[in-house]
Automatic annotation (TrEMBL):
GO terms for molecular function: structural constituent of ribosome. Keywords: Ribonucleoprotein, Ribosomal protein. SUPFAM superfamilies: Ribosomal protein S16 (SSF54565). GO terms for cellular component: mitochondrial small ribosomal subunit. The keyword Iron-sulfur does not apply. GO terms for biological process: mitochondrial translation. This is Small ribosomal subunit protein bS16m. It comes from the Eukaryota. InterPro entries: Ribosomal_bS16, Ribosomal_bS16_dom_sf.
Length: 79
């Protein structure tokens, strides 16, 4: 799940908003599915929210942000 929390220390409390979901199980086409609410993510980034590295990689692959350098490294190693 992709959530917005007020602060990193408050992650034991309920999240403020769900911004998307991530299904780690692969489908029959060997794909992992991600749903992202781009409008809300852009809103929270504009409000100064920090974004975790895994989410930065997902947003880079989806085209919202530039591709994260770690994505290039992972692709190079798996080729």
């Amino acid at each position: 799940q992709i959530y917005y929390f007020q602060t990193k220390s408050n992650q034991k409390k309920p999240p403020i908003e769900q911004l998307g979901s991530f299904d780690q199980c692969q489908n029959i086409f060997n794909e992992k599915l991600v749903t992202v609410n781009y409008e809300r993510i852009q809103y929270w980034i504009g409000q100064g929210a920090s974004v975790s590295r895994p989410l930065l990689e997902i947003l880079g692959i989806s085209g919202l942000l530039p591709i994260h350098p770690r994505t290039y490294i992972t692709a190079w190693r798996k080729r």
